[in-house]
Predict the structure.
Amino acid sequence: MSESVEKFFESDLYVSEMLKVWEEGKEWAEWLDSLAKKTSSGRDVLDVPCGIGRISHSLSELGYNVVGVDISERLLEVAKARSPKVTFLKGDMRRLKDFIGDRKFDLVINIFNSLGYYSEEEDIEILKNLRDSSRKLVVINIDNRDFVIYNLPSVRHIYIPPYLVVDANEFDASTSRLRVIRTYYLNGKEVDRFEFSQRLYSLHEIVRELKRLGLTVLNVYSGHSWKQFDVMDPQMTIVAKV
């Protein structure tokens, strides 16, 4: 993860954005709760990376024992303040064992498009770590490369009160990495700018790696719905069994 990406995730602007979509964590938690019941899974959950704890908080309110892990001290400060019932740990998901040891969880979740900010080799290491920390299910939610390359405009304007956010997007087909220059404006003046890139994946790439790691893919859904994933859905949620 580049310094620019870390700077973005540590910024007050990013924290403000995440707080505005706090309720999305509740929607995800309710979906995961239904999934756990459908698959007779237990109530120990590892949320990595957990960010400000949107899902961790709501799962804990539903009675789950949740450990949230994130590399950002800033995001963890917010998470701890809002969710005292959750155990939060600072750590790098490329080296999960360093801080959770040999502990196993019934449900290991990697939500909100968190893969792709490192190299492909490191992404595979992350998948291994998710597998090794689960005794039953691994759930991965990421953007769908095939949707992005056909639908993402070269310039996108988003209003996130009070800021106008402008993303300049460039996709490199040779590496499947999306380069984004994100600029925040307030009252017509530039407030801050961040640049980052993310490796985007198609479904078959993730499924292939999970199978190589010995996991069984049970199903693939569109976001946090029960709709079966279609190639032109914006997001894919992969449910795999250890």
